[in-house]
Amino acid sequence: MKTIEAILLIGPTSAGKTPLGDHMQQRGVFGRRCHHFDFGRELRSISSAQGPSPEFGPEEHAFIRDVLDKGQLLENEHFPLAEKIFRKFLSERGWQEPDLIILNGLPRHEGQARDMERLVTITHLLALDCCAEDICARIEENTGGDRAFRTDDSEKMVREKLALYSKRTAPLMEHYSAKGCHLTTVCVGATSSAESLYAQLLQLLSPEGGAGSA
Prior knowledge:
Blueprint lengths: L4 E6 L6 H11 L6 E5 H10 L9 H13 L8 H15 L6 E5 L5 H7 L4 E9 L2 H10 L13 H15 L2 H6 L4 E6 L6 H12 L9
Parallel strand pairs: 1-3, 1-4, 2-3, 4-5
């Protein structure tokens, strides 16, 4: 069975994961072709369809819409749906070795991390570190250019998502560090662009940065 090697992006809402993931896909990492799997974007694409598709039935379609409306996470029992979405992405993208997958939004908690172990090997974890004040500024200014059509950026939902990230997703740093995964923290400010984050990332991953080569 072919080994799917992946880099996992984590960070609070609007820290710039999607723009950075897209930039990594465009530019590559470690000299390798990258495919950016943005789970939230995949869910929104399915939800925005006029109705159920051949791939996703009425119950799955309704469930995805409900998850997005409430800003919830898919729990362990829902992983078969997440896996279906991921495998569809791999097929459409034409992944092949030695391509890298940039994971964004999956896994988002330790239960999903355990389930993902049979699908991918996560070798690097990139944590985007952004304070709440800068997050609010990034949302207001749409710094990353990816919030224009988002309906989940109300003050209430942002506050809930930040609390959920702290409780469920941030512990993945300890989870993957214990497995020997390379952990790199990228500092994000109110005006940080995908280009500047990518440049910072390459510097951190260089031999001089102590985390490998890019």
